[in-house]
Amino acid sequence: MGYSNPHVVSYNFGEHDFGAGGDALAIKAPTGFENGRILDVGVAVTETFTADTTAGFVRLGTASDADAYAELNMGTAADTDYHNTQDDTDAIISASVTNAQIEVALVAPTGGTPAGKGHVTVVIGWF
Question: Of 3, 77, 106, 124, which one has the fewest beta carbons inside 10 Å?
Fold first, then answer.
């Protein structure tokens, strides 16, 4: 299975309350796959995000570089929207990943009254 026909996996992390704080998660390649390409990072928003001082983010990276692969800026994403890489067109920084663990950071917005909830999904094509 090559780059032109990847094994596409959607990693669904469930609903996260960004306004209540951040979280740290991780992704690994399926057994037998060595390389991958980030296809999308998105959040099905269930509570409007705030960004009084800083916005909330979904970051994909390594232990030494939190946003080596992607940083989706949630801004003031609205309730009931699906906010993804179409909304933040420079969210994917380096689409190519390996079978090493990918660190996923869900970063809370700051300032005012932090708010924002949503179901987080990361889509990777493995080959």
Answer: 3
